[in-house]
Amino acid sequence: MSEIITIDASGLSCPQPVMKTKLVLDKTPSGHIEVLVDTATSRNNVTRFAENKGWKASSAERDGGYKVTLEK
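Request: output the structure for the sequence above.
Response:
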């Protein structure tokens, strides 16, 4: 099983969660990444960005925010 990379973008406003995610995706050709965000807008933006980069994205509510899971 590959390592799970976690990006904690909680408390950050757009576009920062997407920028943090981009930095990791640029260095990670495939794998399992979890992005923690606290707004629906951030969740939607991270999901859309990752899917445009060819990643499969899903999300779930967690602790008053969201966990976006990216897989490729």
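Residues 4-71 form a domain with the Translation Initiation Factor IF3 fold (CATH 3.30.110.40).
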